[in-house]
Design goal:
CATH superfamily of the largest domain: Hsp33 domain
Distance between the termini: 34 Å
Strand order of the largest sheet: 7-6-3-4-5-11
Shape: globular
Order of helices and strands: EEHHEEEHEEHEEHHHEEHHEEH
Radius of gyration: 21 Å
Largest sheet: 6 strands, mixed
Length: 298
Amino acid sequence: MSASRDVCVRTVSENGSLGVRAIVATSLVAEAARRHQTSPLATVALGRALMGALLLAAGTKDREQVQLSFEGVGALRGITAIGTSDGDARGFVSHPDVGADDPSLGLDLGKAVAGGTLSVVRSRESWKEPYTGIVVLESGEIAEDIARYLADSEQVPSAIALGVYLGPDASVQAAAGFLAQALPGAEDDEISVLEENAGGLPNPSALVRDGSSAEELCGILLEGLGQRAIRSSAVQFRCDCSVDRARRSASLLGAEEIREIREKNERVEIRCAFCADVYHVSADEIEDASQRPGEDRR
């Protein structure tokens, strides 16, 4: 497995006309796979989506959260990933065991997704309402669909690559990606150099498995263009679920159901879809939560 630390780095070309972000998230993707007990195909899908969400959220001046929702019509069905500008990511797939009973799928995400839509929701603390964009899935391979969203909904031409390298035992050996964009004022010849550099780059996960770092990915992308100082921040799998949220979710049960739980001296099991953590809530806790619907107290 790659020894590179999980990190997202960002920089711009020497004249400031091209922006590049690169991510290494091997441990993050491995943790997501462990929590959700994903098949190899689902691991690749979820890992790419988590890194994509983090790349879109990275570097914003105001705290931002990006949610990617892939709604496919194939065997995989849905992929949901949330990334924040703080470097936290969480997510899930609708069918974590996809491919287990159909070896013909292999690691073919396009076939497993088989068309549908990508919804992107951007939200910031300073915004009154989130921004939502929806595009038709172009390939189902995650990166190409995010690039299409950026071009169609945000009018930002982008080159993006995302990769998850699995070992013979299906463990996550490396997970990495990059996002390169032309900024206002970029000249055509500069964009051509960036496109050539990106087009000649092997899969980023293979490079990271062989020892490359996120900083080195940026250097390869901006070769011949120079670059300014690199800024980096750690990324990690982290969910914002809590005992209090689980209690409030359980408080939505009807009075008869809560009474039955009390009579049987049982506890309700609440499983977080995003991280698979499990909470057990008693009838007393449910009633208490229903009577004081305050803020989250983690």
